[in-house]
Amino acid sequence: MAAPLTLVLVLAVTVRAVLFRSSLAELISERVEVVSPLSAWKRVVEGLALLDLGVSPYSGDVFHETPLIIYLFHFVVDYAEIVFMVTDGITAVALYLAVQNYNRNVFRKQKYALEANRYPPDCLELMRSPKEMFYIPLKVATFYLLNPFTILSCVAKSTCGLNNAVIALFILSTIKGSALLSAIFLALATYQSVYPLTLFAPALLFLLQRLYIPVNPCRSSFWLFTLQYGFMFVGSLLVIICLSFFLLGSWDFIPSVYGFILSVPDLTPNIGLFWYFFAEMFEHFRFFFICVFQINVFFYTIPLSIKLKEHPVFLIFMQIAIISIFKSYPTVGDIALYMAFLPAWSHLYRFLRNIFLVSCVLLACSALFPVLWHLWIYAGSANSNFYYAITLLFNVGQILLVSDYFYAYLRREHHLTQGLYLRRKDGSEATLVLK
Amino acid sequence: MGLLSDPNRRKALTTLLTRLNTPICVVCYLAGIAWFMGLAFEPFTLRTYMSENAMGSTMVEERFPAGERALATGREFAGHKRKAGGMPVDWLVKTMQDRGLEVFTQSFSRTLPFPDENKERYMVRGINVYGILRAPRAPRTEALVLSAPCSPDNSNNQAVGLLLGLAQYFRNQIYWAKDIIFLVNEHDLIGMQAWLEGYHHTNISGMDYTPLQGRAGSIQAALSLELSSDVITSLDLILEGLNGQLPNLDLANLFHAFCQKIGVMCTIQGKLQRSDWDTAEGYTHAVQTMMLMVLKQASGRPWGDHGLFLRYHIEAATVRGVNSFRQYKTDTTTVGRLLEGMFRKLNNLLERLHQSYFFYLMPSLSRFVSIGYYMPAFGLLATILLLRVSLHCLNPDMYKSWMLQFKVICCSPLRFISGEGTEQGWRVLKLVALLYLAVLLGCTALINFSLGFILAITLVPVAACVTPHLPKAVSALAMVLLSPGCTILYCVFIFQELQEAPVSLSEGWMLFLSVISQGILDHSLFGSLVYPLLALLVYPCWLLLWNILFWK
């Protein structure tokens, strides 16, 4: 499968290179849907300029990325375009290998379950065959590389691409089973933007499952492993933060990066939900609503982990989706990461109920974003309400997409235990209804 | 979430949509057309009203006295223009300086991509002359613009004369809080584009111009004057700007209020308002006025020199004096008083005009239709596309085969491109075409409603009805007759009919060709979006539908 993957990589690099050299690159790098105050390339360049002058890059409230990023670009700023293309390539290859490994595990478990006769007899059509699963890793890599959102994000040189690469490497190392590497990449991802902290739970669940440790608070093996993994994670995070401190020489990156992400001072419009609310809010209530909005991102981990504790990889997908919908400064690059996973769940297609409506909504909203921005900012005929309406619709579409896949996944699991053709007690046909 | 999650209700809805699809589509189409036509019916429209409080009462008395002197200045200007063979720069500079303005000039040049046959120019070179009247008391942060074009032939001399006369009168008043810029632009729209680009430090059209030496602050409003006769019978207001953008309705309301106060007859689209709205003639008159506005807006070209100001968020309109065969004539002094009144009101503005509507249609100067009332007409047409999409998606037999076709098409693009389609492959293509058309028309209607609606009238029936099973020859002819090119041809004929200057077939064809060349020129000179939209986005959709018709 290396040849088709190489072909896709070459095609992706060509598309990005062509766009880099065209006049669209500047236009794209200014779009608010593609770059945010956290990830804009202009701000990285500004931070580098301040660093060269010997001043802290965080003075002046312009630069909000982490010190490791700025030191990385200190060395490779002349090759920035190549760095971003390579980053996209790394993400795609990592996702490819991760999904390949995951599919192998899934198929093996299915084989054992079939041999142990654990599935009801009418579930044969729900079984996944190697033929169907053969092309999925390639499709995942293609979905990521050739997604217009990813291409836009790469051409705009948004550091979101680097965040995606770290998360993809985290997923790869978790699925391969290496707890140390997983903890290190998770620490790196959390260090970059606070929200991947919620991926601790699915990673832990996956590694526990892999080591055949039951998820039971009464068992000591559970707590032993949790403490081990937690210690590795916290330790790596502390090491990375202290490394940043030593590189930078001061602690002012903490309020500039984490304070900025958590307290949302910059209300530039973007595709997220925060800016409009906080533009309208009275100062008195600001702190309360910041807490509410930020807890909203982290809160779904608990119920989802309880429900999906047997299916940690799907939980990772759901968590990444929730992060990219509810985070404080989302961009289209974040969306591209969880959309890349959708081919991995293509066997759920028959249970999806609203996929067509949702994809039409997402497509129409993506087309309407620049139109309403133009009408608001340039023509002066619309106002922020129109743009926020499209933002809301876009996010509602994303939430419907994620919840539809969630429903389809759970329904398939239900059918795998209860049988495909449901019968009531008296033998008549029954249908599943979500009330 | 009952509708989305309850399978029984979903099944009922899907059977309803599948069985009644075609009747609902036909009803929607007719309802859309009827709604649009009904917009001109007077009880369905609203009377215009002044929304901006700062422009409220009209209690000030206008006192401009020097109409005859303005006409004499205009005759002098005409003489110097003939002698100089173009813009008499030195005379204009000296005259403006004598009136106490700060005068500056700007030279510009542009080579058109191909010769413009309507105006007979190819390599355009010119000079704009403008004088700034500085506000005597207030800080100089805002400005108003009065402009008159310097036309190569013998027209608009009186406009320049009146402009200079007003400049002299305004100079002696103490109540100005904003600077007033008196601009005489050469080569009408090209000169105006050069001036605006120089003023705002942009260069979107690739024009060569010298930078402006004098500036006056951010422009709040602009009026362009076109006056070619010593006496007029009516004043025509022109609102349509580049890409169908319209100024704030308050500017039209201001003009109408002053016309009524001073007693000048005012028209829009060259048509006077009738009072017999309940008769057939009255209604057709209103429909004609509204259709003229729709056609002018859909063309995307600026219909007066004011059209280019709108892009910079400056509310602007063109006032054109018309001398027709009516008994009551208005002299230049009265026109001067009207402009003085309008400028005094605009002087009172504290912020840019934003209170009234930006999107409207006007069946007459005192009645308007806002976006909330006219958008459902387009919505009904767009619903047809969505109904067709749902029909294709909810068809249960082809659900599985649809997925198969999609996979086939995605995994073997070569087979798809070579045209060797499968039996049901055209359904996927039709689905894509319908969705693409819906999104495209929706985005177009948001920016330029008239263009979106006119395209929808012809393209939606084609997209909804086309299948490979129709009789090929008849449907091919129908598709060509409903293509965007033929739509432009019909619009040209209808426009000429509405202007009461009907053309024969050959003249109409020449006019059609000139309209297309004007569209290309507008795109390259001013950045009009109609030509790239039609060529790059609408035609591929039509070609997709053509491909579906001839699917093997």
Radius of gyration of chain A, rounded? 23 Å
- Continuous helix count of chain A: 20
Roughly how many Å apart are the termini of chain A?
44 Å
Strand content of chain B: 15-25%
Written account of the structure:
By secondary structure, chain A is mostly helical. Chain A is built from 20 helices and no strands. Chain A has one domain. In chain A, helix 1 packs antiparallel against helix 5. In chain A, 37% of the residues are buried. Chain B is of the alpha/beta class. The longest helix of chain B has 24 residues.
Set down the secondary structure blueprint.
The complex is a heterodimer of chains A (435) and B (552).
Chain A: H1 2-21, H2 24-28, H3 41-52, H4 67-76, H5 80-115, H6 130-134, H7 136-145, H8 148-155, H9 160-176, H10 179-192, H11 200-210, H12 220-248, H13 253-263, H14 274-280, H15 283-299, H16 301-307, H17 312-326, H18 332-339, H19 355-378, H20 384-418
Helix pairs in contact in A: 1-5, 1-7, 5-7, 5-9, 8-18, 9-10, 10-12, 11-17, 17-18, 17-20, 19-20
Chain B: H1 2-5, H2 7-19, H3 21-38, E1 46-47, H4 67-84, H5 89-98, E2 102-116, E3 121-133, E4 142-150, H6 157-171, E5 179-186, H7 188-200, E6 208-209, E7 218-226, E8 234-238, H8 249-262, E9 266-268, H9 280-299, E10 315-322, H10 332-347, E11 360-364, E12 367-370, H11 371-394, H12 397-411, H13 413-417, H14 425-447, H15 449-465, H16 472-481, H17 484-498, H18 505-526, H19 530-549
Parallel strand pairs in B: 4-5, 4-7, 7-10, 8-9
Antiparallel strand pairs in B: 1-12, 2-3, 2-6, 3-5, 8-10, 11-12
